Amino acid sequence: MKRRVPTFSRRIGRFTWDRRVLLLLVICAIVLAARTWLREHPQHNPWAPLDLRDPPGWATAIKIRALRDDVAVCHAALTRSQIAFTSLLPVGQGPCARADRTVLTNAPLDPGKPASTCAVTVAFVLWQRDTLEPAARSIFGSGIASIEHLGTYSCRRMYGRDEGPWSEHASGNAIDIAGFVLEDGTRISVLSDWTGDGPRARFLRQTRDGACRFFSTVLSPDSNAAHRDHLHLDMASRWGGTCR
Question: What is the rounded CA–CA span in Å between residue 146 and residue 110?
């Protein structure tokens, strides 16, 4: 004779099965909603190709830093974003070899347009658009005419020492910014205008803080005396670095 399962036990089993199905449906709905949202907001999607025309998002910094290890992908990002650039032939040897020399064709850099790694170039584009220009217009009511720099490449160790780690400048993976000239002729100097609480000092601190969103290492006069006259910006680390 077959043993009958108590009605109460059958109901419990069915209730458990129904809860599992409901939970599965809820999970599927969340996954689909998340995929749709990420598709509509690629700046937050770490798997979406980087497009510099998108506003900065949660995944932007990660994507930029990943570019330092793949020049072809980085150049593809610039092309996709309709950013004019020139790729120069590799030069140098050893620690000072520069396999990646990318030049921003239309960057308002002075003097000239120095070559840097593509990752530095990408970070610079976003920094100029999303930090420098808004800060200049907000504080001074004028756009930026030129950005004064001290160069990108210097075959040397950190702080010019005879031994120790090599500087990011040795491979062109950094740029030093000394000042800015606005469209109305106003000149802002890191060396002269960093201290105080006036509009020039406020602008410089905003540019430093904004750079930390895109570059992995940012060093200002607040870091040490070696940086009293410039902002050092580099892409040394893929996962984050220093901001001070």
Answer: 6
What mean pLDDT do residues 28-44 have?
A: 66
Q: Which of 152, 155, 157, 201 is nearest to 179 (CA)?
A: 201
**Domain identity same for 19 and 113:** no
Give per-residue burial for 105-140: e unless 16+ CB within 10 Å, then b.
eebbbeeebbbbbbbbbbbbbbbbebbbeebbeebb
Q: Which amino acid is at 13?
A: G
* Domain match, 109 and 179 both: yes
Q: In the chain, how many domains are there?
A: 2
Range of the domain at 57: 45-234
d(CA 71, CA 68): 7
Kindly compute the dihedral angle of the four CA atoms of residues 94, 95, 97, 98, in this order, to the nearest 10 degrees.
160
Q: Strands, E, within the chain: which ranges?
A: 85-88, 101-104, 109-110, 144-151, 174-182, 187-189, 217-219, 231-234
Q: Which residues contact 126 (CB under 8 A, 6 or more apart)?
A: 52, 56, 60, 64, 213, 214
pLDDT of 37 higher than 60: no
pTM: 0.85
The answer to whether position 83 is within a domain reads: yes
Amino acid at 210: G
How high is the pLDDT of residue 38? 54
Strand-pair category, 144-151 with 109-110: parallel
**150 and 199 share one domain:** yes
Are the CB atoms for 172 and 113 separated by under 8 Å? no
pLDDT in tens, 144-161: 999 999 999 999 999 989
